[in-house]
Amino acid sequence: MSVKFETRDIVVPGDLLYEGRIRTGENTFRREGNVYSNKVGLVNYGNDRVSVIALEGTYTPLVGDLVVGMVTDIELGQWVVDIGASTDAILTINDAINKSFRTNFDMTRVLDVGDVVVAKIVDLDRRRTPILSIVGRELGKVHEGFIMKITPSKIPRLIGKKGSMINMILRETRSQITIGQNGRILINGRNREDEELVVKVIHKIENEAHTSGLTNRIQEYLRKIKEDRK
Amino acid sequence: MSNTIVSRLKRKKITDVLATGKRMDGRDLLQYRDWEIKTNFLAKSEGSAEVRLGKTRVVVGVKIGIGHPFEDTPDAGVMMVNAEYTPAAHPTWEPGPPSDDAIELARVVDRGLRAAEIIDMEKLGLVSGKKVQMIFVDLYVLNYDGNLIDACSAGALAALTTADAPKFKVSKEDEVEITDKTEKLKLRAHPVAVTVCKIGDSLLVDPTYDEEEVKDGRITITVDENGNLNAIQKRGPVGFTVDEIKKCINIASEKAAEIRAIALAGE
Amino acid sequence: MSKKTKKKTTKRKSSKKKWARVDGRKPDELRPMKIESGVIPNADGSAYIEMGRNKIIVGVYGPREMHPKRFSKPNRGVLRCRYHMAPFSVDPRRSPAPSRRDQEISMVITDAIEPALFLERYPRSVIDVYAEIIEADGGTRCASINAAAVALADAGIPMKDLVSSCAAGKYDGKIVLDLGDHEDKKGESDVPVAYLPKIDEVTLLQMEGIMTQEETEKCIDLAIEGCKQVYEAQKEALKKKYGMVDEAEEKEEETGEEETVEEEEE
């Protein structure tokens, strides 16, 4: 049999998933004509490919991603931003304000070391450095709130299919939540109680990301907590 | 610690929440996280303790051997406290010689033990001027989430209290033999360090890593079981009013008793 | 040492008496092992291992930006493994400063693990592996590699295979597996091996002592058998985290197809 496991079996790096030709989905690799897992996760045999749903791993920057990061350095005409990827990201002046760089321009008037930003990845340069932009709605320096970090691979679970999970959380907690694809979540609630609820819910999703029936369980969880509050 | 960049947003949020009398993790200002202390779990150490305080995790090893006394105290044993900031404990920690913070941690814990005269060092002599007992206390940080001083101080106390010290036999020819017999160390005091942090106008105990990052200053006060103060260390580029200092001393005296009970529970 | 002499005398006296190791193990028996993943909250991945009386904890950070930049490589990532012993891990206490032995072991451990990684995916980045020996009792470099492999997988760093490590050697004339501290110090030879179980390649091989070629090859084979046993324990440790899957799902009523994580092509 070419298929070596059953969908949702737990596999480890090096496990032979498929003997022979098949498309390699995420977290798999081809060696000597066969497909293997390169992470710990749940194997998934699709129609024409095999992949592994992994629950850990650093953030892999993709063009178009919304990320939350912190400025860690200022260079000539650009800021260095830590987004938790394998290399730092760059934000140039042009992508921050509609001005071109003049040598006597004080960059700290726009962003200083220690500032937190919500940005979009607009490019990956030839050295695969993520290039950011904060020009646009909902982008820019963050003035209020706090950041919660979860494993980036669990972000899709937090968002849910067509936003079903996150929309439910927004509704029930009435808080502002900005989700960075890099696993950093910006939270701003109307009061501490609501914020603490958001943190609790996200923790629960993070711990149970690999289970099914999660959306309903979270809905139930939120409902129970709000009842206990009354 | 002093080299890392602190997020302005983090400082603002923590300060805003503190103003309401609470902390980011829901604790009161004078509330410690959960303690977990395990003792005597290392076979090659005479004494050992593993302390978990919230997510902070340290291992304290006590080793007792034979060494050379200091010239001016030929009959006194030697106690040395060393701290290791293992690079595994925090993303910003790098391998290398002890950082300033690691050195301070070791010295503050040492001072607390020494000033309280926890062990009568004069009783540790073996051969006058040549051989004395050496007590090494090694503080090994495995996960750093704030408040290392309090965690290590409690760990050192727990490890010393439960240590199985070897009994030494000195022959007529001044040969020292380590017998198979062991005994508990005779501890004369039970000093405990309590660190009070100042963030803005708030005074709080047991800071997490985030709280330590945004703190303005801290005072560590070591208190013994009689309520005497053994050591004080003030850090941070801000001033404390005398009133604040007195408040810190009161807080420390109260908290020390709680921590001491936990540290000695393994006895 | 008197213990050893006593054994030999006993052996000569009555050949019917069963030869036993100091801890009663059979020649091809591993010491009891325990592996746990995810033990250092701050680390990207971590693991704790007990192999006999060895107690080792490993923390992994990365891939992350490498500083200083001049040590980074433009077209691939760098793996940095550091082996370090706590002062109280041995008797008598040792200095906390890294020794030359620590440095050499750090290097061979790095070489043992690197073939299992996809470093070409992380130019200019570094993966840091920090092994801290809390208690040592022979075979710490093997145990460190075993914990490091689990820690790297725990971090979600892509790997071609796990890395499993075990030593074999000669003690009191017999070829034995997984030497304890006593056997290591008093035996005739020690051969630590690290192995990629699925790829079937040896990535660490050292040898010290006096043995014939045949004995040495026997040791390597035996060590690889030991590695395979270790591999099973490593897999268990990694899968344990997902053990909650079955419990959580059983409690739930299935309400139809749930959203799954979006798949992306490699």
3D structure, described in words:
The complex is a heterotrimer of chains A (230), B (267) and C (266). Chain A contains 4 helices and 16 strands. The mean pLDDT of chain A is 93. In chain A, the strands form 4 sheets. Chain A has a 5-stranded mixed beta barrel with strand order 8-9-10-12-11. Chain A is 20% helix and 32% strand. Chain A has helices at 155-159, 164-173, 192-207, 214-229; strands at residues 10-11, 16-18, 23-24, 28-31, 34-37, 41-45, 49-54, 66-75, 78-82, 89-92, 116-124, 130-133, 140-141, 146-149, 176-179, 184-188. In chain A, helix 2 runs parallel beside helix 4 and helix 3 runs antiparallel to helix 4. In chain A, a hairpin with a 2-residue loop joins strand 8 (66-75) and strand 9. By secondary structure, chain B is α+β, with helices and mostly antiparallel strands. Chain B has one domain (8-266): 2-Layer Sandwich (Ribosomal Protein S5, domain 2), CATH 3.30.230.70. In chain B, strands 1, 2, 3, 4, 5 and 6 form a 6-stranded mixed β-sheet that branches. In chain B, strand 1 (35-39) and strand 2 form a beta hairpin. In chain C, helix 2 (100-113) links the parallel strand 4 (78-85) and strand 5. Chain C has a single domain, classed as 2-Layer Sandwich (Ribosomal Protein S5, domain 2). Helices cover 32% and strands 26% of the residues of chain C. The radius of gyration of chain C is 21 Å and the shape is globular. With 266 residues, chain C is α+β, with helices and mostly antiparallel strands. Residues 1-14 and 244-266 of chain C have low confidence and may be disordered. Chains in contact: A-B, A-C, B-C. The A-B interface holds A 70, 72, 112-116, 142-147, 192, 196 and B 5-10, 12-13, 17, 20, 22, 24, 26.
